[in-house]
Amino acid sequence: MEAKLLQTIRAQLITSESFHPFGQVIIASSDHRPFGLKDAQLQLQNGIPHFYIMRLHQRGRKFHQITRHQLCTQCLGSLEGKEWLLAVAPPSQAALPRLEDVVAFRIPGNCFIKLEVGTWHAGPYFDDPWVDFYNLELSDTNLVDHDTCSLLEHYGVECELV
Prior knowledge:
Layout: E1 5-9, E2 11-13, H1 16-19, E3 23-27, E4 49-57, E5 62-63, E6 65-68, E7 74-78, E8 84-89, E9 103-107, E10 111-115, E11 120-125, E12 130-138, H2 141-144, E13 147-150, H3 151-155, E14 157-161
Parallel strand pairs: 1-14, 2-9
Antiparallel strand pairs: 3-10, 4-12, 5-14, 6-13, 7-10, 7-12, 8-9, 8-11
């Protein structure tokens, strides 16, 4: 099925406040600061944590699928200070995200993000030929906790990040 409509989504620069409905933005802090609410609040108790570096190759800025993980949080960050883009929709009990709730963020390479359990996400997207990302999720997340919605099938839409 081909897209009936191309919806553009303008990516905004991420801030802790703007990203709050979807998760956390984690920035550098003092080494001796005690653990607190500005640290990643992880939920990894449903399995074996998997922390790894994944190399992704540039694939444009268009997408027609959005995914969520309902058993764990997920942390993503680029290596080498490279900026990247991510589209998100808030977690909900609904089977599908609301198309009007999908927003996008530009994420600088000096921070990482933690996605709340159930946050819909598409990406990472970037303009470099490839980018290495560190990823923290569960060891079987992509096998047993990968709920994907086809925006093309359900809404007749393909999205493009600008």
